């Protein structure tokens, strides 16, 4: 019996996980954390739909937590096999999982202290130690090479353009009828013609089935140019004596922001000594992006060759120690502070906002989607006050949002990616999208002549 079971991200954009089984032999594609409201996050505590110790291997599409964030729990519950990821992913997976283990422990400690958990002794979902044990199981593999990960089962990664190291995966194995066929797991598909990383590259095999993400299946990105928006905003804010705070998503988005800011520097519109990257995780991720030369698109490769890369260590100022971050409070000269986290849930950006939101000269530039329940959402929705560290802080600063920086392709990009495949798959399953998005994408695919896409529920199984 060869079958595929959808274990997560069915009708939601987090918790990606798909189980592949050939009799007793079981593999998992992604092992993501659910993120968002309480109902979603409770799912992280449910028992797995399989026995972790019996899994032979895990294949990870990319480093984001909604694809990797439950790996340490899998390991804590007995999984000991290899975890495959691409070579450029490995560093990011290490960064993100260690950080996640730390945050889980912190949250449990905080809940215990405040006594607001329903449990007498709130426990972390997993610990930093679990995360470190997980990292020992990572096996980094190159893009474009077919690899036998179990007898008769091969895997090949192709660049997905969504994040450093992000891949689409081709898995080739026999079905119950003895026929060998290829399934493609798109992972998260990036955008075409955006800076830093190479464009998405289609898988090569003719697919029998495709599992396709649908995050923006119902949307088209606005045709806005983030560089022009920075160029319009930053000098204007500096001229009135204000600073610009950019809440940053440490992986991917931060590097794009730096890329655009560096063009302002080249034109003389910005002094690089006025730009501070204030996030240890973003600094480490930026180094990984800079080092992964094979992943750079032509423009970045040219900049790297000319020692003009936005990502090199001496391009902008970096705050590693918290004392360096605090020193920015006393700075009189206007500056740009790029600091995590992107939705202002935590991290150093919270301290900067607490200090500067009340100053009408300040501007805050959001660079991505702000989920409901976050401070970022309150600010972009026009809140006049926000609570920070138990205090009510008044908001007089100018709040701006950039819309041109998504890491996910829109529905045009997803269609373009599907059309680039070697053949049209006989079956398409849409996951990793809210129901409205996957329904809209299904309609587009159908009208484009693709196979009738199916929208699996969590727990649904289909034959290989
Ligand atoms: Zn992702």
CATH class of the largest domain: Alpha Beta
> How many separate domains?
2
Determine the structural class based on helices, strands and strand pairing.
alpha/beta
- CATH 4th-level superfamily of the largest domain: Ribonuclease Z/Hydroxyacylglutathione hydrolase-like
How do the strands of the widest beta sheet line up side by side?
6-5-4-3-2-1-21
The count of strands amounts to 21
**CATH architecture label name of the largest domain:** 4-Layer Sandwich
Q: pLDDT average, as an integer? A: 95
Shape: globular
Number of helices: 14
Using the CA coordinates, give the radius of gyration.
22 Å
Would you tell me which CATH topology of the largest domain applies? Metallo-beta-lactamase, Chain A
How many strands, what sense, and barrel or not for the largest sheet?
7 strands, mixed
Low-confidence stretches: none
């Amino acid at each position: 019996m060869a079958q595929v079971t959808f274990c997560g991200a069915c009708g939601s954009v987090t918790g990606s996980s798909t189980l592949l089984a050939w009799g007793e032999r079981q593999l998992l594609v992604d092992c993501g954390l659910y993120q968002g409201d309480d109902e979603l996050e409770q799912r992280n505590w449910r028992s797995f739909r399989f026995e972790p110790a019996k899994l032979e291997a895990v294949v990870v599409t990319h480093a984001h937590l909604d694809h990797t964030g439950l790996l340490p729990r899998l390991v804590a519950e007995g999984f000991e096999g290899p975890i495959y990821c691409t070579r450029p992913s490995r560093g990011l997976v290490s960064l993100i999982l260690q950080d996640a283990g730390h945050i889980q422990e912190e949250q449990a400690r905080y809940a215990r202290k405040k006594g607001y958990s329903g449990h007498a002794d709130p426990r972390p979902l997993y610990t930093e130690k679990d995360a470190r044990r997980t990292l020992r199981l990572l096996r980094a593999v190159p893009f474009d090479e077919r690899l036998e990960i179990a007898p008769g089962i091969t895997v090949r990664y192709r660049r997905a353009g969504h994040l450093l190291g992000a891949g689409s995966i081709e898995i080739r194995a026999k079905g119950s009828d003895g026929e060998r066929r290829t399934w493609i797991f798109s992972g998260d598909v990036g955008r075409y013609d955006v800076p830093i990383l190479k464009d998405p590259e289609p898988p090569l095999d003719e697919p029998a089935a495709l599992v396709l993400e649908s995050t923006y299946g119902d949307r088209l990105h606005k045709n806005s140019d983030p560089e022009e928006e920075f160029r319009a905003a930053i000098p204007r804010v500096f001229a009135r004596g204000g600073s610009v705070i950019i809440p940053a998503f440490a992986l991917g988005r931060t590097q794009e922001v730096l890329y655009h800011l560096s063009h302002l520097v080249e034109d003389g519109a910005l002094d690089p000594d006025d730009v501070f990257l204030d996030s240890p995780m973003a600094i480490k991720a930026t180094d990984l992006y800079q080092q992964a030369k094979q992943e750079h698109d032509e423009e970045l490769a040219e900049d790297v060759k000319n020692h003009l890369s936005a990502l090199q260590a001496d391009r902008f100022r970096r705050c590693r120690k918290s004392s360096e971050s605090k020193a920015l409070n006393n700075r009189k000269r206007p500056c740009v502070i790029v600091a995590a986290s992107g939705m202002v849930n935590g991290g150093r950006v919270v301290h900067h906002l607490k200090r500067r939101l009340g100053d009408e000269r300040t501007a805050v530039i959001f660079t991505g989607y702000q989920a409901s329940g976050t401070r970022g959402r309150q600010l972009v929705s026009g809140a006049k006050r926000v609570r920070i560290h138990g205090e009510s802080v008044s908001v007089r600063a100018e709040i701006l949002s950039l819309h041109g920086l998504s890491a996910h392709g829109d529905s045009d990009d997803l269609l373009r990616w599907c059309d680039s495949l070697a053949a049209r798959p006989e079956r398409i399953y849409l996951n990793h999208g809210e129901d409205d998005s996957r329904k809209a994408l299904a309609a587009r695919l159908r009208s484009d002549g693709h196979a009738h896409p199916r929208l699996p529920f969590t727990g649904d199984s289909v034959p290989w």
